[in-house]
Amino acid sequence: MFPCQKLRVLEERLQCIEEFERPKVLLEQYVTPSHLGSHMLHTIQSQYGDIDQKIVADLGSGCGALSIGASVLEASQVVGFEIDKDAIDICLENISDHDLTNIDVVQCDVLNLDNTYRSNKIFDTVIMNPPFGTKHNAGIDMKFLETAFKLSNNVVYSLHKTSTRDHVLKTAKLLGGEGKVLAELKYDLPASYRFHKKKCVDVYVDFYRFEVDKL
Amino acid sequence: MKLITHNFLSSKCMKGVNVGFPLKISASDVKVTEVDFNPEFVARIMQKIDYPALYTATESIGHLEDLPKQMVENYENDEHFLKKVHHALLQLEVINGELICPETGRKFPITNGIPNMLLNEDEI
Ligand SMILES: C[S@@+](CC[C@H](N)C(=O)[O-])C[C@H]1O[C@@H](n2cnc3c(N)ncnc32)[C@H](O)[C@@H]1O
């Protein structure tokens, strides 16, 4: 066990995050719900000590839920990477509302990110809630994972649909990461993001920890 | 954008660019923010920092102060030096300005502290 902020306190912080004003469906913009986000981050720190004093990247940082949570849990520096200017503007408001001084945001395409960085393996920990990949961009979450593995010198935490578990674990192995499912979560996506036509379908997602090549 | 972030960014994502590092900075607005000093973290991250690029960046935004030109040897236990690096890396923030590709001169705007590294399709 590692020292960690109380779960309840973290969740309260994440509850007051402004959300996407006009979410862009193609970019799969939805905020990680505060109870999920706080559980994820609390596990990452209390079980593994992977946030406190670490340099952390958040891929597809959106309105900043995960970046802000990592900052609250005493990451030394957090860098969020996000493609969408509108999301970044909301994220900046959230960062200033929370009085945090250790989050940088870079506007970029994560799919091009390993070439926007001088060298890899800069980050100790990469966290993300990537786009899952609908029909238009199937496989995008695996591309996020590949980038995450290149950026991290230690560990990557991510969410992927439970229905793709075998594929995720296999892909991770090919990319040089040893994956483990830490929890299965029920994710109540806004209607526009449902992957099925049926009403009231919850999406099941896995919360993963991947150990990557240190180098 | 803090200089720690600048120290890792490059423009080699662009077609025809080989190294794309370090990006030049032209800053019109710089902010200094107080950040807690953690000597262990700074010593650890120093192993990944390109020191000459940090020095030049600090100088080009007009905040060189007393950062030494040469990296100190055995800096792990040199709190005095680590504190200066801490200031340069984590407390200086470019709010508005531009990053400039050293090979093509392509400008990447920095607005409200956010560098925009997005490229047009024909640049990739
Ligand atoms: C599911 S949301 C997660 C948002 C935030 N991290 C959170 O946990 O609340 C995915 C985010 O990835 C961003 N995104 C989608 N494609 C991207 C790309 N190619 N590069 C960078 N960001 C992208 C979206 O704009 C969106 O903000």
3D architecture notes:
- The complex is a heterodimer of chains A (about 220) and B (about 120).
- Chain A has about 220 residues and is of the alpha/beta class.
- Chain A has one domain: Rossmann fold (3-Layer(aba) Sandwich), CATH 3.40.50.
- Helices cover about 30% and strands about 25% of the residues of chain A.
- In chain A, helix 2 runs parallel beside helix 3.
- Chain A is globular.
- Chain B is an alpha+beta fold.
- Chain B has one domain: Single Sheet (N-terminal domain of TfIIb), CATH 2.20.25.10.
- Helix content of chain B is about 30%, strand content about 20%.
- Chain B has four helices and four strands; from the N terminus they run αβαααβββ.
- In chain B, a hairpin with a 6-residue loop joins strand 2 and strand 3.
- In chain B, helix 2 packs across helix 4.
- Chain B starts with a helix and ends in a 9-residue tail after the last strand.
- The mean pLDDT of chain B is about 95.
- Classes of the chains: A alpha/beta (about 220), B alpha+beta (about 120).
- Chains A and B meet through helix 4 and strand 3 of A and helix 2 and strand 4 of B.
- S-adenosylmethionine binds next to helix 3 and strand 2 of chain A.
- Chain B: This is Multifunctional methyltransferase subunit TRM112-like protein.
- Chain B: It is found in: Cytoplasm, Perinuclear region; Nucleus, Nucleoplasm.
- Chain B: One of its GO terms (molecular function) is protein heterodimerization activity.
